[in-house]
Amino acid sequence: MLNESASGDQQAEYRLGLVHPRNRFRTGYDFARLISRHPSLEEFAGPTVRGNTSIDFADPNAVMALNQALLADAYGLSWSVPPGALCPPVPGRSDYLHHLADLLSNGDASSIPRGRDVHIIDIGAGANAIYPMIGAAEYGWSFVATEIDQTAMRWARQVIRVNRSIGPLIEYRHQANPNACFAGVTKPGERFHASMCNPPFHASANEAAEASTRKRRNLKLSNAEALNFGGRSNELWCPGGEVGFIERMITESVARPNLCRWFTTLVSKSENLPRLRRMLKSANAIITTIDMAQGQKKSRILAWTFYRP
């Protein structure tokens, strides 16, 4: 029997189902079908105390196998991340893209823009390239993915190269300045329909380490297992933490108001919203906030534009 008491974020997403209506994973996981698409998942799947089939969400190898199976089943994608990198839960990452599509269509599902002429920039795409890969597969969008870690970028480029159906739609660019968002990685005259970003959460390495310790304790993991859940320094923390990163992004967007029709970012800490909204209001931006929830985990997308029709 699998122990469901040590649950992760992705298990919570699966259980509650408060996900976007177009999310392909909103009704749960068909493990028989997933295993047929990704046979390595089978060794991690088993009966729960409730009699369902699931995995141990405290096992990072099982979580990796599940996400690989989800991407293979939904989109025919082959995907992996290097040791030590973040393994993002695919259902929640999908939600961001679906909400972004709604934003670009003003909420009209019949007029969602699709195809390679829709240009998105993903700030800090990491080694997992999860947003560009899902966005390219789901909507056919073109992506510029930026990353400060060249090792992570090389890994992502190789994964993208293997997936020929979406490879031509995704371009990785190295961001040489870790304190910059758009500067240095965008070209003169370049325009995007939207930007997206999952900013580093913590303000320091110590803060990130303390959070990792708490997660390890809550999930009853060993040190080795906790490390396998991943998160390199640039993925986990930056000067000023989440709010500092987004403030730098806002400052750059004010200097480049025509770069994106919509600038967007995830905001994990709701207490950061008032401060960020005040900054945007002072810049005369039009602001919207989109709430998201997967299980008990709540997040939101902060979006702003300087475009006035």
Question: What would your notes on this structure say?
Answer:
- The longest helix is centred in the N-terminal third of the chain and has 16 residues, at 60-75.
- This protein has helices spanning 9-16, 31-37, 60-75, 90-104, 130-139, 150-162, 205-219, 223-229, 233-236, 241-255, 273-282, and strands at 46-47, 53-54, 119-123, 142-147, 170-174, 192-197, 260-267, 286-294, 297-305.
- Strands 5-4-3-6-7-9-8 form a 7-stranded mixed sheet, with helices on both faces.
- Strand 1 and strand 2 (53-54) form a beta hairpin.
- Helix 2 (31-37) crosses helix 3, helix 4 (90-104) packs across helix 5 and helix 10 packs parallel to helix 11.
- The N and C termini lie far apart (58 Å).
- The chain is of the alpha/beta class and 309 residues long.
Q: How far from one another are the termini?
A: 58 Å
CATH fold group: Rossmann fold
Order of helices and strands: HHEEHHEHEHEEHHHHEHEE
* Approximate helicity band: 25-40%
**Major β-sheet strand ordering:** 5-4-3-6-7-9-8
Cα-based radius of gyration, to the nearest Å: 19 Å
Domain count, please report it: 1
Roughly what fraction of the amino acids lie in strands? Answer: 15-25%
User: Which CATH class is shown?
Assistant: Alpha Beta
**Stretches with pLDDT under 50, minimum 5 residues:** 12-17, 223-229
| Shape estimate | globular
Indicate the structural class. alpha/beta
**What kind of sheet is the major sheet?**
7 strands, mixed
Name the CATH superfamily assignment. Vaccinia Virus protein VP39
